Amino acid sequence: MKILISNDDGIYSPGIVALANVASTFGDVRIVAPDVEQSSMSHAITSTRPIRFKKVVIENFEAYRVNGTPADCVALGSHTWGRVDLVLSGINLGTNLGNAVWHSGTLAAAKQAALLGVRGIAFSTTIDETKEPNFARLEPYIRKVLELLLKDKTMCLVNVNLPKKPKGIRWTRLAVGQYDGKVVAAKDPMGRPIFWFTVKPLDGEVEGTDRWAFGHDWVSITPLRLDLTAEKDLARALSLPEVPAMTPAVRRKSSGHRQKKIRKRRLGPE
Questions:
Q1: What CATH number labels 2-175+205-230?
Q2: What is the pLDDT of residue 266?
């Protein structure tokens, strides 16, 4: 099995090495990751400039750094290595729970894999700013998650969050409550207004969601999908007796076309 590993914390993040160590027991590993941190980049891709692909030394793994986004790394890694069997992203230093999947660069790497027809799994864990996570404690759970997911070939995109001291594993759904984005106004040293985009804690946890599981020290595994279609809304719209109205310009054009055909039928061929 060819396993491509990326992240959004950057090529030298300790989380990517921890993930590669576990992944190497399942197949051949190659690391392709951003040269600098790309947190909260979501699914941005670089289309206005060329990007560079440079080999680096990351312990015993073949690794490359890219001056691009997590999605760039997966696309470029797949292109240069040929068809890969699995893409892993992480281990992110910070959780990606609930609505964070919308702006997460970690999830974007896994999503890019799914868009390319390859299975993508994203791993994240909580972080204490004073010390790095205890990856040795998390490795058995990462291994178990991979064993579970590799048996089920139907899941193409999965989000995994690991608490500090897991007590087990739970299948979960996304917590899709109010978005936790926050804007903080401040001033620079010259007194000019600036703004910080940050997050605020959300209150309440619904049982069965990833936030609930993580809050109760369970490893959460959340299957995701690329199709964002609101099926219930679409079904309701399709059942309506009236079709969406055309704009006046379209109606005039359509009406003129019908009148021209009527005149042609009356006059016959020229």
A1: 3.40.1210.10
A2: 52
